[in-house]
Amino acid sequence: MTLSRIALIGFGEVGQILGKDLAANGIEDIAAWDLKFDDADSRPSRALTGNYVTAGADARDAVRSADLVISAVTAAQTIAAAQSVAEAIGPGAYFADMNSASPSVKTKAAAIINDAGGRYVDVAVMAPITPKRLATPMLMGGPHAQALIDAAGGLGFDGAVFFDDVYGKAAAAKMCRSIVVKGMEALLTEALITARHYRVEATVIASLDDLFPGQDWSHLARYMIARSLEHGARRAEEMREVAQTVSEANVAPLMSAACAERQDWAAARKAATNEVALKPMLDAILKTLQADKDATSC
């Protein structure tokens, strides 16, 4: 199947990057739908100003006649996204589910799409979408994965590899990776805010540099904490999917559940990302904590 018309379900950061790259690689017919299109001032709506993508009237309108549908929504909307297009997806059209959802959720979404006549592919994005963008490493799983990789040749999915023909395994790999990556973000956030309160952050960072050489821990900490502040709400959703994944393996998700709480907590302090350096960013977070304390003591 030639992929000449592509639909994007979810037009946030990931959807916009994919749309721009696909257009740059020769796809002239790209449609998009996002729940936030109802708000003309939302970021997804404002991103429609370019001429590389056309907004659908709704999700079903966006996917009609599409050869490939890419779902890039938040983790909690994985099933809803599949359901929103099931009635309109064309026979044999690929549905690439790039959402950070648990294996069981991906399996349910696969049934929805496959029962509707589409071809569901579980896609696990294994690195931040920048800087490699469309070429970001991705694991593709399910019985239609290799066929999609073959059909997408030349479109720029240079980091995509076949992983397994069983649904859920690619998702499991992504979820287990997130325990470490998002967990590190949460740990560094908690550790260095506390350290800054006691004015011992320089000693802590120096100790990390000594214990784990090869990393600039001040730079890494600023980056990872800022990611939590910027994307904490989305990360919290993902970590709840991770906790479900861990539970389904008969392991208590103690770390994953706590990480979800810390990511949610970080999202409420997003304004601190305005500070470029680590210490001022930590101070900005500490000010919000003092303000919260003062408010509750009144």
Describe the structure.
The protein has 298 residues and is α/β, with parallel strands linked by helices. It has 2 domains: 5-166, Rossmann fold (3-Layer(aba) Sandwich), CATH 3.40.50; 171-297, N-(1-d-carboxylethyl)-l-norvaline Dehydrogenase, domain 2, CATH 1.10.1040. 52% of the residues lie in helices and 12% in strands. It has helices at residues 13-24, 43-46, 59-63, 78-85, 103-115, 145-151, 169-197, 201-211, 217-248, 254-267, 278-297; strands at 5-9, 29-33, 54-55, 68-71, 94-97, 119-125, 138-141, 160-164. The chain has an 8-stranded mixed sheet, with helices on both faces. The protein is globular. The termini are far apart. The mean pLDDT is 96.
Summarize the structure.
With 298 residues, this protein is an alpha/beta fold.
Key phrases:
298 residues; alpha/beta; Rossmann fold; N-(1-d-carboxylethyl)-l-norvaline Dehydrogenase, domain 2; 2 domains; eight-stranded mixed β-sheet; globular
Helix content: 40-55%
Shape: globular
Reported CATH architecture of the largest domain: 3-Layer(aba) Sandwich
Low-confidence stretches: none
Query: What is the average of the pLDDT values?
Result: 96
Note the gap between the termini: 66 Å
Order of helices and strands, N to C? EHEHEHEHEHEEHEHHHHH
User: The CATH topology of the largest domain is what?
Assistant: Rossmann fold
- How many alpha or pi helices? 11
CATH superfamily of the largest domain: NAD(P)-binding Rossmann-like Domain
- Spatial order of strands in the largest sheet: 3-2-1-4-5-6-7-8
